[in-house]
Design brief:
Number of domains: 1
Bound molecules: zinc ion
Largest sheet: 4 strands, mixed
Shape: globular
Number of strands: 4
Structural class: alpha+beta
CATH architecture: Orthogonal Bundle
Radius of gyration: 15 Å
Distance between the termini: 29 Å
CATH class: Mainly Alpha
Length: 148
Amino acid sequence: MEVIRNFADRAPMDLDAMARALGVEVRRGQNLAANVSGKIERRGAGFVATINAAHSAKRQRSTLAHELAHRIFHSDLIGDGISDDGLYRSSVSDDIERQANAFAAGRLVPARLVRKLYREGMKDTPSIAERFDVSDDAARVRLRELFG
Ligand SMILES: [Zn+2]
């Protein structure tokens, strides 16, 4: 968890640096099926996360954060690989996927930081999305989670 704390509360957060710190090589997959967001697999002593390069840059960030969550919390479940579809569903349980989504949201749009910006007047979805380099949808969901 120490590794994760080093990346707390930065906007936008440096996912590639976090991947390196976790021993995850990030590949942009050119040939993934359209309904695959990304996957993570063991490779030797480390891991490889493949992100669907056909998706938008912001979507790719969400996918990478999600795959890194699998590396952090579910490395014992990765086995031959976890492959996530467009809704971040996979062969592992929905609870596992929810945990990965929650982690991704919390890292991409950290609560402490977004609360501070909100108090300072940044309350609209497009500004939050821009500041944290996430999709409007991701920003909207996070604002709803934090502020109702
Ligand atoms: Zn997943």
